[in-house]
Amino acid sequence: MLSQEEKNMYFSSLFGGAVGGLVVDVVLFPLDTLKTRLQSGVGFRKAGGFSGIYKGIGPQAIGSAPQAAFFFLTYESFKYYTEPHVAPHSLPLVYMTGASISEVVACLIRVPMEVVKQRRQTTTNHKHTSLRILKHAIKSEGIIKGLYRGFGSTIIREIPFSLIQFPVLEYLKSTYRINFKNNIPLESWEVANCGAIAGGFAAAVTTPLDVAKTRIMLADKKTATKMRVRSVLSQIYYEQGIKGLFAGFAPRVLWITLGGYVFFGMYDFSKNFCNEYFLDSEFENR
């Protein structure tokens, strides 16, 4: 039997994650499109340039809320049940482990969305709608190989990203709260600032992994079966050097920095709003 505190934690994590994920993905979608086209193997102009920067927003809007909701449900649950039993100096390990597990769960929803979205972002054929791309992927390669193309490379990108982002985020929140707030809980805009710094730093470090993931997702069927993250990175470095490995660096870092601000700010605000106006009132009425 779940306690009221556990029920509140589950529901507020789902609600806050869903709102935060949807808002940031829709608002900052053009930056994601530009980043994807810069990383495309055919080049920025052939992939669409600056035109149609909202291509692929359909699958993004559909998938962003549930994948973010399940990420935070997993992450907050892991923290809730683990933190009380861990020494303070081991807390970063808790955040890293929780974030890694959460990324795997979220990627079960995120990867199919990413496959369809990125192919839509880089096609110049207006007849290739998101629905047609989805149907073609399933018909030509099946659900697993078609929609989960690049699952491994996405995990390889996301786990290092989270291993960096969440310990930095928790450290910034804790340090700011202790040194500047007299241990008073942070406001949502303060959480947003911490999220922006942590996200931008993690994005900068993991850009090469994002480039590899994009190339694998956009490759044709025959080529993709032979592609591995290490070999893709080696080929990009051989052909384009460091510049190629950090293709799309500026829009990616800008997108995730702004996204970190909006996402974590909206997540904290929505979670607090949910606790204050829904869960607390429901509890009082019983």
From TrEMBL:
GO terms for cellular component: mitochondrial inner membrane. GO terms for molecular function: S-adenosyl-L-methionine transmembrane transporter activity. InterPro entries: MCP_dom_sf, MCP_transmembrane. It is a multi-pass membrane protein. It comes from the Eukaryota. Solcar repeats lie at residues 8-81, 90-175, 186-273. This is S-adenosylmethionine mitochondrial carrier protein homolog-like Protein. It comes from Tribolium castaneum. The lineage of its organism: Eukaryota, Metazoa, Ecdysozoa, Arthropoda, Hexapoda.
